[in-house]
Write a structure and sequence with these properties.
Elements (H helix, E strand, L loop, with lengths): L3 H22 L5 E5 L10 E2 L24 E9 L2 E9 L3 E3 L9 E3 L5 E2 L11 E3 L26 E4 L11 E9 L8 E9 L4 E9 L9 E5 L2 E4 L11 E6 L82 E2 L48 E2 L4 E3 L5 E3 L4
Parallel strand pairs: 16-17
Antiparallel strand pairs: 1-15, 2-9, 3-4, 4-5, 5-8, 6-7, 8-13, 9-10, 10-11, 11-12, 12-15, 13-14, 18-19
Length: 400
């Protein structure tokens, strides 16, 4: 029987053997971790130009399907592996290549699901990076020959920063695939981005993608056939709005500070009208009585007017009224005459009709009033104010 401690030691030794064997099979210079998604706006970047005649080693074209650019200046010295580069080439199928011109066709089988050629590791494509190694077709009219038709017209295309972003030692070089379709896959598109940092790390970023044929292309890098790595993921669509940072763990772990933090351009604002209140006066009725005049206007005085005439009551018309005395003075006018005394009593009413008398008060009577004066003249009229003159006569109207 083997002691427990010896069993543990044997298991640890076996695990180390497996780990060493795996390391011998694949020595990975770079490790990767998720990082902050910070899509760099490609609208200010420069469209790539595919080499013509093609610089591809092996199969390639000049229209943008399986094509490669001439060497492009990075703008600073970028160390990939143990080698510093100042130039690179962009290959249509989601690759950056350093001192490497191999192209090759992109599709192995149209499926579905679609499969792709040149999976890592491959002796034909060392010193390359794959943001998504599909059969991307950036040709404006489509290269033809596939199961469906595709086109790549503006804004579709592949773009790069002709001048690096930022300042030394934190400059960045960016390559972006904008809405590029998969070869022969009508309606597919991919938004992909590679950012090279001056410190030697690099970032893959994934925008919106439409993977209609269900392909599963490589995401990774390869320095040599024995020094490479790929990222495990479920589907390219699940990576939308995510980013992956690759760095050499033997160098201090970088804290990426994007030089250009994208500022999304918002849609035109929806104009919300600002209501500037225009004062509209509200007519609030203050119990305004409706006047329905009868033949005899009714004056409702607040205070009973006090007449202060001289010893002889004076009516102030222009013309002197005519006195026709009889035994019984009877004044039966149809309309009550309007009196304009020297001191005019103030009638306070709400919306009281204004009477504008002429110089001569008009008494419109059916019968001419007959005055029969006695020692004390008394006016006895039907619905007519009764005059009881004394030294100070008072007019007390009943219905005036």
């Amino acid at each position: 029987m083997i002691p427990v401690c010896r069993k543990v030691a044997m298991r640890v030794a076996a695990a180390l053997v497996v780990l060493l064997a795996a390391s011998a099979a694949q020595a990975a210079t770079y490790t990767h971790v998720p990082t902050t998604y910070a899509w760099v706006d490609p609208s200010t970047q420069t469209a790539v130009t595919w080499s013509n005649p093609t610089l591809c080693n092996g199969f390639g074209d000049t229209v943008g399907d399986d094509a490669i650019t001439a060497p492009i200046n990075i703008g600073f010295s970028f160390t990939y592996g143990a080698t510093a580069y100042t130039q690179l080439q962009v290959m249509t199928n989601g690759r950056l290549q350093f001192n490497q011109t191999y192209c090759g066709a992109g599709t192995q089988d149209i499926g579905p699901p679609r499969t792709y050629t040149l999976p890592y590791s491959d002796n034909n494509i060392p010193r390359t990076m794959k943001v998504y190694g599909a059969d991307l077709d950036a040709s404006p009219s489509g290269s033809g020959g596939g199961p469906g038709s595709t086109t790549c017209t503006a804004p579709c295309g592949v773009f790069y920063t002709a001048t690096p972003l930022g300042v030394a030692p934190n400059r960045q070089f960016v390559v972006t695939w904008v809405a590029v379709p998969d070869w022969g896959s009508t309606g597919s598109f991919y938004n992909l981005q590679i950012v090279l940092n001056e410190d030697g790390s690099f970032v893959y970023q994934f925008g919106a993608n439409s993977n209609l044929d269900g392909g599963h292309a490589d995401i990774g890098w390869e320095l040599t056939n024995g020094d490479w790595d790929t990222v495990t993921y479920t589907d390219i669509g699940s990576l939308a709005s995510t980013a992956i940072l690759f760095f050499d763990p033997l160098i201090a772990t970088p804290t990426p500070t994007p030089t250009q933090t994208p500022t999304p351009t918002p849609p035109p604002p929806t104009l919300t009208p600002t209501f500037t209140a225009t004062f509209t006066p509200t007519n609030t009725a203050t119990n305004t009585p409706t006047w329905t005049p009868s033949n005899t206007p009714t004056n409702t005085p607040t205070n009973t007017p006090t007449w202060t005439p001289s010893n002889t009551p004076t009516n102030t018309p222009t013309a002197t009224p005519t006195w026709t005395p009889s035994n019984t003075p009877t004044n039966t006018p149809t309309n009550t005459p309007t009196w304009t005394p020297s001191n005019t009593p103030t009638n306070t009413s709400t919306n009281t009709p204004t009477w504008t008398p002429s110089n001569t008060p008009t008494n419109t009577a059916t019968n001419t009033p007959t005055w029969t004066p006695s020692n004390t003249p008394t006016n006895t009229a039907t619905n007519t104010p009764t005059w009881t003159p004394s030294n100070t006569p008072t007019n007390t109207p009943t219905n005036t």
